[in-house]
Amino acid sequence: MKAGIAPFSFTIKGKIRYVKRSEADENAIKIAKAYTGRDNIICFSRSSAANIPVNMELCKKMCLDKDNYSVSIPLGSTINMDEAAITITVMTLAAAHTLGISVSIPTAIVLSILATLSACGASGIAGGSLLLIPVACSLFGISNDIAMQVVGVGFIIGVIQDSCETALNSSSDVLLTATAEFMQWRKAGKEIPF
Hints:
Blueprint lengths: L4 H17 L3 H10 L4 H6 L7 H10 L4 H14 L2 H17 L6 H15 L13 H5 L6 H13 L1 H31 L6
């Protein structure tokens, strides 16, 4: 098994389960098969912006409407940063737990919303999500010097973490674009070409 397949397969399986809950259940496997061969590029470029050409080529291969994917893929690579939000939230909660700070459910929800909004611009920068951790740590009163130590830990695990982050972010751009278009095709009675 190639080294690039493992992080990608963990992220795509969750997305397939999400899509299977929607009306596009049989299309999820087709989208996953279309990704075969692109896993190393997606996992190891470490930048969602660098994956725009890969995702555009994949959408073209899947016969999607160019008018749709030429907007959704670049836009998604900029603002669809779901894994960056997860990284910010997990690292901040780990810091709070390590310092013995009690985190209530409402505070964790506010942290998740803050991380999601903060992450909407972290693409194109390898490790960009890590630089938003001090903002999230300030929600719990964690000092900047401790927050920067958390960022330092993030840089140590950054190669693996950023590869998984990019895989999730980039795959979701194509997955959501294709799912939306496949649902339109299904309503119009059009057959999916692959």
